[in-house]
Amino acid sequence: MEYWSAFFVGGFICGVAQLFMDYKFSQMQVVIGLVLAGVVLGALGVYDWLVDIAGMGALLPMSGFGYWLIKGVIATTEQNVIEAGANVFRLVGVEIVAMIVLSFFTALICKPKG
Amino acid sequence: MRLRDNYRQAVKKFQPKPSYVANSLKAFFIGGGLSVVAEVLRAQFRVNLPSLAAEQAVLLLFIGAAVVLTAIGVYDEFSQFAGAGSTMLITWFANSLTSAALEHRSEGVVSGIAGHMFKVGGAALVYGIVAAYLFGLVYFMR
């Protein structure tokens, strides 16, 4: 059952984004809009519900990235304004650091194709 | 402004009409399929790991796969075929960093690879971080 909901939620986000891309907006604008939507919905608490239903179907698109940005700030046990900036990277830091390190060594080793 | 609008209307007749339904369905099935793969992987990781670590491990696997596919040159073709089915996922981010770094590889290690790495993907990061920080401040100040 959870596989079906992951399929439909993940597919729905991608399909709607494709409609936006075909209609008017550039790819970059759609991606940024998706990240912003994740941040706003995460702040309102809607995205928690979506992740409960769909699991990775909601976390794998870029809106899941925005959701983790805001969730790192909000869902801390110590409510501290000063550390809000550090907590932005609490959850997504794993991904960002992995991406930077992997792509750095990839660029060192490989040659561009095509 | 007037000139730009005129140009747009003049060009519009000769542009091929995008097939909205077909593209959207393709993105739907590919994005949904990748989500199901991620969900299956999460169920596997969930046996030994706590929930958050399992989700992060799945995302790390997808990032690693995207970087490797970009390095061997397969990701471009897949991305062109899939449309939003691949560009709206976290793999877009990994692909944009890696391809920008690879593209400017010839300019040197410092100003080429490191300087241009966030050329494309940085925009999403900037907007996400600014919005998250502002919303977090509002959340604590209320």
UniProtKB/TrEMBL annotation, chain B:
Residues that span the membrane, as ranges: 20-41, 53-75, 81-102, 123-141
Keyword Transmembrane helix: yes
Domain of life of the source: Bacteria
Keywords of the record: Membrane, Transmembrane, Transmembrane helix
Pfam families listed in its UniProt record: SpoVAC_SpoVAEB
Protein name per the record: Stage V sporulation protein AC
